[in-house]
Design a protein that fits this description.
heterodimer, A: about 220 residues, elongated, B: about 550 residues, mainly alpha, Cytochrome C Oxidase, Chain A
Chain lengths: ~220, ~550
Amino acid sequence: MSLEQTTPYVAHHFDDADQQHDASSLGMWVFLVNEVMFFGGLFTAYVVYRTAYPEAFHAGSHELNITLGFFNTIVLLTSSLTMALSVHAAQVSRRAMLVINLILTMFLGAVFLGVKAYEYTHKWHEHLIPGPNFVFDGPDPVHAQLFFSLYFAMTGLHALHMIVGEVLLGILVLRSLQGMFNKYYYTPVEMSGLYWHFVDLVWIFLFPLLYLLGRH
Amino acid sequence: MAVPAIDTTLAPHTEVPAKPRKTYLNADYSVSSWLLTVDHKRIAVLYLISIIIFFALGGMFAAGVRLELLTPKGDLLQADTYNKFFTMHGIIMVFFFLVPSIPATLGNFLVPMMIGARDLAFPRVNLLSWYIYILGGAFTLAAVIGGGVDTGWTFYTPYSSTYSTSNVMPAAIGIFITGFSSILTGLNFIVTIHRMRAPGLTWFRLPLFIWAHYATSLIFVLGTPVIAITIFLVGLERALHIGIFDPALGGDPVLFQHLFWFYSHPAVYIMILPGMGVVSEIITCFARKPIFGYSFIALSSVAIAVLGFIVWGHHLFTSSESVYAALIFSVLSFVVAIPSAVKVFNWVATLYRGAISFEAPMLYALGFIGLFTIGGLTGLFLAAVGFDLHVHDTYFVVAHFHYIMVGGAVLAFLGGLHFWWPKMFGRMYPEAAAKAAAVIVFIGFNLTFFPQFILGYLGMPRRYHAYPDEFQVLNVLSTAGASILAVGYLMPFCYLLWSLKYGAVASSNPWQASGLEWLTPSPPPTENFAETPIVTQDPYHYGTDDDAEAVHVA
């Protein structure tokens, strides 16, 4: 059986499946570079303000729940493992293992978002949402508010990326159940995996910057 | 001598009239075949129509601005209305015309053809980018219809985030969304140029148009997300009172300026680099000489893209920037002029002792070289801190960037459109009218913008609807020039449309140009090439014996 017969997904403008896979792969990396720059604007703002107002940022950081943050970090790292296992399952044409790992990844992502929602609610009750109702009895409340502006902008944007990832995973589950992926064609699983790992990696930077830095 | 097979078998004159050759234009006539097309050539045409509509709209706002400035008193437009006019002119022209102008139209059409590919790497992403552009445009039009925006196209905080009561939100959302169409176009070009080149087409055999688009795509991907997050934060600030830029909430408005110009200065190179690519193709063709210093022109595009990212601070000389930062940004801004000058000198060297003919595209290209040089040199004036403090926010700056954006980018767009028009639509435009239009555009442009250099030097600030009486003569000259320029724009619009039906049928290569796109019939078939071409030589074989043998079809 020739390669073309087993991979009905080579688009007309590609010479072969390899070229198509290479193009998708490069395209995804270029997209992730763009994502790095997108988050980069926020990280720049964080660095500038943290350098300018270190006390206010320390005080603000003390209001964050380090246990929940750590728990979420573990959850997300585990989801990266299950995602990697999904890609491997697709590459060796093991459909059941693929579906189970994708669903596990989705579940762990949902746990992360749930914990994040709980943390947000908690901040709401403590009047730590920037705006007219913001109350902070630390040393520099104006710039502590700036810390929380950044906290919500950065984690919010990260959560938005998580939600997009959940949708992607949902589509992958449906497609996997239809038997679309096998060792000849697994590009969408691999590309979604790259995206998921990237979103994880953003959190790996967010967690120490927001929760840990300056607490000791 | 190997004659390209498609040239002899599929050229229009050999066709039986009763059964026209299949092209990308007549492949299907249904509306859905256009709106759901994944053919890069059709998407280029969709983009072309859309950006011309936005160009006309932006031009109307410019006309309002110029008419108001005919008289020293603010009589035609109220101050608030005038603010909205120049803002809408800037937003529409920058984000909806200049940024996508050449890449999304000529680039979309030509990048796959020039590298011998059947399409861009991601055809559906390409179509998506057009829909995103249209959606962003719809939000911006909603802002116009709802009463306009008055922040200036630069959206400086805290005015834009806190105080302005105009339609900042829809305009900001429109720009945020449209940014993603640029990002997707850039991503598509990068992957296509890396992965889809024809056999034998090595990096240093690529046309300079491709190099220019590759460099532009780098800026699209690296710069556009930064403006996206910046505009996103302004939106958050207006909607949710998250205070990244608002001093009342602990933020710093100058940070906005840094982030804004981190994109918006490289965006200037997004506008000019594709134009430089177009001019490189036209100059070498109509001088009938191989391009001088190919690798220098190619790599100077990349150098401009890289250096363009580290000069943004020259927009902040008067915005609390430290003396040392100003010094460094000033020096870096001088450095970025070097690769631009490399291009200009190489074009001039290409012209030297060439067999030059003055077809309309060449007139635009020659105009580009002169006007871009003036725009670039006045940019050096502005990069010098002392002089910049004197003319900051005056008409000198307005004149400078219009020499780049109109004298450079628009002339290159028009030149490129004329040069590849026969390829895109299979018809020749009327040459005499086109030459006349090119001359009228050149005269109208200079009459519009040269007086503004003098006005700015004399101290007339930008963005005011009234001015002292002694500035009137120069302002009347400028408005008169603008009306001539308008005629120069309307002429190609009319005769190019006319040529679609009545123009002479174009051969596959009316300019005897080199390059893969000229090997396939005009207009090209949907799949571009009957067979994938194989490239055996360097580009630009003008004036040599093996001109026709440069590339042969396997």
